[in-house]
Structure formats: structure tokens, C-alpha cells
Amino acid sequence: MENDIQKKQRTKTGEDNSLITATVVFGMPAKDCAYQGICIIEPEKKFREYHGRCVGLASISQAGENVLDFSFPKSKLNRKTIKKHFGSGYFIILEDYKIPDFLYQAIGKQPIVILQGIYKVNENETHLRLKLNIATL
């Protein structure tokens, strides 16, 4: 059954796949958010709490059975973050990341992880986009 967040987001986007905006802190959870990967995903309202860290806002949607699409507006990423995490043209995730409850509930999936790997960055004038592989726990 679809929850209120899913209904609102589906209506807002006009699509069947849910869309949510979230704060993403880059790095490894096991290394106190240092190095490469996704360290924390939290609701959008937490964005300002991470001032000074490698952080961005992302629109997140399901892009296939086992893929999540992350779209980062460049205006919400500082230059240091872009260079460190996206500058090579690839986004590296060094360890699997279990997504938080609010996110998997919003996209209508059971608990999942984003799989470690090297992901191509798709860039246009305004956004950096990633298609990340996921697996059910």
C-alpha cells in the first residue's frame, strides 16, 4: 500500500516511481565519513547541519528493479566536494551502504543496500547524476 510520502512525491513528479530529496554526506561510515562513498543519507531538512563537510542534496528515485537514480544539483555541491567525489568522472563506493528506513519506505522497497562499486558520473550543465546498484537485505 502506498504511503503519504509516496503519494505526494508521485503526484509532484507525475511519474510512477517515487521521488524524494535527501541530504547525502559523502565518505565511508566505517571511517567517520572520510574517503569515498556514501556515509549518511538523511531527510533534506538536515542539509544545513553538515556545513563544512562533503555533502549534497540529491533527488532520489528508483530507476529500475535494482537501481536507484541520484541527481545532485551542482548548485547544492561545493567545488571541493565535486572535485573529490565526482571529478574523475566516476563515483566510488568503497563499502555497501544500508539505506535508512525513511528512504526505502518512500520508494516502496524493503530494506536495501547500495552496493560498493565504481559508478559513472553523468553530468550536464546543472546536475551530476548517478545510477547506483542496490540489493535487498
Percent range for helical residues? 10-25%
Quaternary structure type? single chain
Number of domain units: 1
What's the helix count?
Answer: 3
Q: What descriptors fit this protein?
A:
two-stranded antiparallel sheet, eight-stranded antiparallel sheet, 45% strand, 137 residues, disordered N terminus, alpha+beta
Folded structure, characterized:
This protein is of the alpha+beta class. The protein has one domain (about 5-135). It is about 20% helix and about 45% strand. It contains three helices and ten strands; from the N terminus they run αββββαββαββββ. The strands form two sheets. Strands 1, 2, 3, 4, 6, 7, 9 and 10 form an eight-stranded antiparallel β-sheet that branches. The protein has a two-stranded antiparallel sheet with strand order 5-8. It is globular, with a radius of gyration of 14 Å. The protein starts with a helix and ends with a strand.
Q: What is the fold's blueprint, element by element?
A:
Layout lengths: L3 H10 L5 E10 L5 E10 L11 E10 L2 E7 L5 H8 L3 E4 L3 E2 L2 H6 L5 E3 L2 E4 L1 E2 L3 E10 L1
Antiparallel strand pairs: 1-2, 1-3, 3-4, 4-10, 5-8, 6-7, 7-10, 9-10
Please sum up the structure shown:
The protein is an alpha+beta fold.
